[in-house]
C-alpha cells in the first residue's frame, strides 16, 4: 500500500521503519522538512515530501503528531474524504502524566469532528515508540497487541491489514467512541513506563501470546 506518515518524531520514525520493512510505499512529512528528510534517509525506500498534498494518492494516512498539532496537520495534507487515517495521538498534559480529555469525548472523536470526511481509526496509541521501532515480536512467541477502534469498517480493515503486515496482533476495539477507553490505557502505560520508572518493556497486559 501507499502510506503517508505525518510526523517525524519517535513514533513517526518507527512507523516509517516498520512500514518500509513490510514492503509498503511510504511518504513521510512533517512541520520540519529537515526532520522528514532525516527520517526518510534513515529508512531507504521512504520518501520525504512537503506537507501540502502529502496525502494525495495514499491508501492510508498515519497521524503521528502530538494531539495539539493533529487537526492543523491533517488539514494541510490534501483531500482526506473517505481516506483511512490512523490516529495514534493521546491528549496528554504537559508533564505526560495525565489526560486533557476523557469520559465524554476523546482525541480521536474531536479530530473526526474537526476533519469531517476522513475515516478516523484509533490505533497504536497504546504502543510505546521504542516497542514499535523494535517490532511486533516480543520474544517467546509473543506478539504486541494493537487495538483498533473506528466507526468505519472499511477503514478499520485497512488499518488491520497494515498492522498485520508489520507483524502485530490486532484486537477489534469497536466503535470510535471506545477511544475514550484506549487513550486512558495509553496514559496508564506511560505512567508505568516513565512515571513509575518501569520502562517501555512494561505493558505485559498488552502482549498477545501467539
UniProtKB/TrEMBL annotation:
Pyrroline-5-carboxylate reductase catalytic N-terminal domain boundaries: 2-91
One Pfam family this sequence matches: F420_oxidored
Keywords: Oxidoreductase
Keyword Oxidoreductase: yes
InterPro entries: NAD(P)-bd_dom_sf, P5C_Rdtase_cat_N, STEAP_metalloreductase
SUPFAM superfamilies: NAD(P)-binding Rossmann-fold domains
Protein name: NAD(P)-binding domain-containing protein
